[in-house]
Amino acid sequence: MHTVAVLSLKGGVGKTTVALGLASAALRRGVRTLVIDLDPQCNATSTLEPGETSGSICDVLEDPTPDNVRAAIAPSSWGESVDVLAGSEDAEALNHPDPGETRLGRLREALALLADDYQLVLLDCPPSLGQLTRSALVAADRALLVTEPTMFAVAGVQRAFEAVQAERAHNAGLQPLGVVVNRVRPRSHEHQFRIEELRDIFGPLVMPVALPDRLAVQQAQGACMPIHEWGTPGAREVALAFNLLLARILRMSRSRRRPAHPDFDDEEIQEAIEA
Ligand SMILES: Nc1ncnc2c1ncn2[C@@H]1O[C@H](COP(=O)(O)OP(=O)(O)OP(=O)(O)O)[C@@H](O)[C@H]1O
Ligand SMILES: [Mg+2]
Questions:
Q1: Which ligand is nearest the CA of 7, by number?
Q2: Are residues 182 and 214 in contact, defined by beta-carbon separation less than 8 angstroms?
Q3: Over the stretch 79-102, which tens digit does the pLDDT of each residue have?
Q4: Atom 31 in ligand 1: which residue has the minimum CA distance?
Q5: SUPFAM superfamilies from the entry (predicted)?
Q6: Where are the chain's structural domains?
Q7: Is the pLDDT of residue 269 over 70?
Q8: Which CATH code fits 2-274?
Q9: How confident is the model at residue 257 (pLDDT cuts 50, 70, 90)?
């Protein structure tokens, strides 16, 4: 089971979009996936429209019994291979700034119960560093940092990277998977400048595929549909980028010791195009 926390400490940069895009790519590839909505805004839950659950992330974070974990999970409306562990507005009350080891370990306990059920777990984090995001970092084996190519977002991703490094004290297996740059406009000099700045700071951790700024992303989300099913040229472009990202995640998580390489190899590109 590959467990990926999707985070940034800045709001609105595309964490949920990345979690949903990867879920869409996973659906296309038939990868059994669970999306865990840790954000009290519940954007991922609303877009994936899971069936009714009798529990939510709150019950799991308070007491991760097998019954509570099962009661919080339902199939998404997207397709058979994507399930949702439902978010809740009440999770805000559980976002302790200094939660302590026991609270931080509960999500990890819950995921241990699901190890045989899913190939991929995507944790959509809120834009803050309290119990919710930190629980994801304790439960995950990989952290995917999301940023836009703007000055404030670059500062946010640096803080997120520091948070990942700090959490390794509680989860020695946690590795930064990379930094994905979202909403890129290739002709913008400012964007190109910020991407260079990110490469200076993070080197090969900056993912070689960037996600373009396309209206199709908002349209597909508005219609609660996977980007792979939206069908416009913009949607196809974004979908291909998510195929590449997913291929990289599955491959890097498989070979944990393999260092991140800035370029995609031929096999990854072929897999992404065929998906
Ligand atoms: N590549 C993109 N192209 C166009 N619009 C995008 C793109 N990525 C994100 N958006 C839009 O930007 C807005 C914010 O994205 P999203 O909700 O994914 O960010 P977030 O980081 O999860 O926000 P929050 O911090 O509130 O959880 C949404 O309306 C989304 O549709
Ligand atoms: Mg979000």
A1: 1
A2: no
A3: 999 999 999 999 999 999 888 889
A4: 218
A5: P-loop containing nucleoside triphosphate hydrolases (SSF52540)
A6: 2-274
A7: no
A8: 3.40.50.300
A9: very low
Ligand with the closest atom to the CA of 238: 1
Residue type present at position 13 = V
Q: Which two tokens stand for residue 58?
A: 């709150």
Distance separating alpha carbons of residues 135 and 118, to the nearest angstrom: 19
- Judge whether 103 and 170 are in contact, CB under 8 Å: no
Name the residue of 39, 217, 240 to mutate for ligand 1: max ligand atoms within 8 A of Cβ: 217
92 Cα–ligand 1 center, Å: 20
CB of 211 closer than 6 angstroms to any ligand 1 atom: yes
- In the reported structure, the alpha carbon of residue 127 is separated from the centroid of ligand 2 by a whole-number distance in angstroms of 7
Residue 221 Cα to ligand 1 middle (Å): 9
pLDDT of residue 253: 65
Q: Which two tokens stand for residue 251?
A: 């491959």
Q: How far is the CA of 39 from the centre of ligand 2 (A)?
A: 7
